[in-house]
Description:
- This protein is an alpha/beta fold.
- It has one domain (14-242): Aspartate Aminotransferase, domain 2, CATH 3.40.640.
- The chain contains ten helices and seven strands.
- It has a seven-stranded mixed beta sheet with strand order 1-7-6-5-4-2-3, sandwiched between helices.
- Helix 5 (114-126) runs parallel beside helix 6.
- The model has no long low-confidence stretch (mean pLDDT 97).
Amino acid sequence: xxxxxxxxxxxxxxxxxxxxxxxxxxxxxxxxxxxxxxxxxxxxxxxxxxxxxxxxxxxxxxxxxxxxxxxxxxxxxxxxxxxxxxxxxxxxxxxxxxxxxxxxxxxxxxxxxxxxxxxxxxxxxxxxxxxxxxxxxxxxxxxxxxxxxxxxxxxxxxxxxxxxxxxxxxxxxxxxxxxxxxxxxxxxxxxxxxxxxxxxxxxxxxxxxxxxxxxxxxxxxxxxxxxxxxxxxxxxxxxxxxxx
Length: 244
């Protein structure tokens, strides 16, 4: 029987297992400090046309979302997301358990717009008691969205511009980015995604890898001490070379 209930019911591409078997008895440093993670990071930076980016490897999507967002935000800050966003509806309150609120916006198609983000942020600061409410500091989007729609380049450019104008970080959940970039309607490249976000990740778990997500950080503010937060959130895999 062929199952269509998810895109990770199988193990991984056979070539990955072959490579793991071939290198299985090699002894390498742990926690992502090995030659395979280093080589993978360099290839990712080249593909993203982002030589100054920081690349980190985590295991799964929810862990990655929580690690990235909690590393970026102070305790009184929250993240703007579509009400259908994965962090809001399919992560068992993982982000809220870290003390950060999902600031939700109703959308017509699962996609946030620049206008919605601007209106939400402006309304926050227009409130006379704005310091009594959660401060919006990050925008979370996924591509594709939770309902399968994708962002066009012009939409991502507009969102990024609004985020820069209002001091917001833009985080793109790329658990299924591979699908989005190969969609017939897509006009984004990996380099575009890197240039038009502060941080995003390239998902492996849902696109044929055994497991693993590659976080790409382009904003200098978010690079600092990221591995501390990885470790605290359980994201620093001891046998990190498996991710590489």
